[in-house]
Structure formats: C-alpha cells, structure tokens
Please model this.
Amino acid sequence: MEIPTQSLPFRKMHGLGNDFVVIDARESDVAMTADLARALADRHRGVGFDQLAVIEPADVLTLTFYNADGSTSAACGNATRCIADREMATQGVDSLEIAVTGRGALQAVRRKDGLPAVNMGAPVLDWQGIPLAEDVDTLNVPIQGNPVATGMGNPHCTFFVDDVEAVDLADFGPGIEHHPLYPERTNVQVAQIIGLDHIRMRVWERGTGITLASGSSSCATAVAAARRGLTGRSVQIDLDGGTLFIDWREDGVWMAGKTAHVFDGVLTAEFLEAL
Model:
C-alpha cells in the first residue's frame, strides 16, 4: 500500500482531552509512515493529535498507534476506548474484541452505566518485559524520587509525590523519558494519593509531551499504587482532562471513562502530495 494522492478521510476523537486522529484503513488504502504521522500531528500545519490510531484491514478490529514524533506505540488506552465505543455503537453490540499491534487481543465492553471499558491486559512487572536496561527492583527503581516501573504494552515510570501541581512536568518529564534505564524511553507519571481509592495524576507521554490524560498511564499508576500498598486495586484517577476508573482484576487492568467523537475530516491531495 502507498500513501494515497487522493483525499484521505479521518476522524478526530478524544478521551478526556487526550486527542487522536483515527484513520480507517479498512476504507482507505493507506500505508502510514513516520513522515505522514508527524505531518498530521502538527497542530499548525496539519490536524494535531497526542496519538494517531490506524484501524487496519483485518477480520478483527485491529489497531496500530503512532506518537506525535512519528514513533510507534504498542498501547494507547484512551484511543482504544474511543474507537471501541464507536465500533460497539455502530455494530449495536455491548462487547468487542480488539487486536492491538504489539499488545495482542483486548476486550471492550459497555458498562451498565453506559461508559465504555477496555481490558488493557495484565501489567508487566519484570524488568526485562517493561523493558529496563538492567535487572532492578521494579517497585523501587534506582532513580531519584524512587519511582515504580510498569509495562502496559508500553513502558511507564510512576513517581508518587505530595503535590502534583508543584511539579514542573515540562522540565521534569523529558529527562525521565530518556533515562538510560529505559532503552525504549518511557511515559512519566506524577501521582498524588488522595485516598485508598482515589489518585490525582499528571502525565508526560513519550514522543508527545504533556497530555491532558493517558489511559495506559492511568493503568500503570493504579498498578504501581496498589503494589506499593497505597491504594486498593480499584481506583478513581483524576487527570488534567477528567476522570478515569481503573480496576486491576485477575484477568487484566480494566479502564473506563467518557469518550468524544469531535468531527470527521478529509486530508486533501495537496497536503498528501507535499509529504
């Protein structure tokens, strides 16, 4: 497949302000490239997004994700939930299987309260699987601030702090994202425990920067807090853009929250030919 020289439809969606461009390759013959992803991510000359999701042509709903810098990601919880919400509504079903490139099969359901929920799979807790560069205690990573390392299909580094608002995330995030212990870089969370079932969290996403919300980061933070004994396994997480509900069960980490389909658009042939 090649990048089309004709117009290319897309959808703009967001989960709590964590925004996405969605391209449905089942309907458009497109091969995503890093250059195209970066061009789309440009909020001045393109469309703008935190992550890009491509729905691949396959028998099962299959997703591939890209960061704003053009790199790929094996997980994007909010985008998965947004797409699952729309697909369940379109198909008139309350459950759906999703295949995520690099992560495997995930399950989505519509809860009784109407919120879409996605099982993001079991967390990865061993250093090699996250991955880290060397064998360290993932519950007490030897980085200043004593963070927790977790894998949710992508790597995470969670710091528990007294006041998330006091952290200069724009200054703090890049150094941790590129820390030598994380060979594939990492998402960075600063989290404040409000109660046994309540966390306030802010996030720096690898390849993107500060985002209003992050589903996989919320899952990783909930797992880290439970492992530390700071909370139970079912928590409300308040992010800059809104609230997610995370439940770490035996079958995986479930995430639920609101979604929004903002608009549909078309990339022009002029835009595509300029790449």
Notes: The chain has two domains: 8-119+259-273, 148-250. The mean pLDDT is 94.
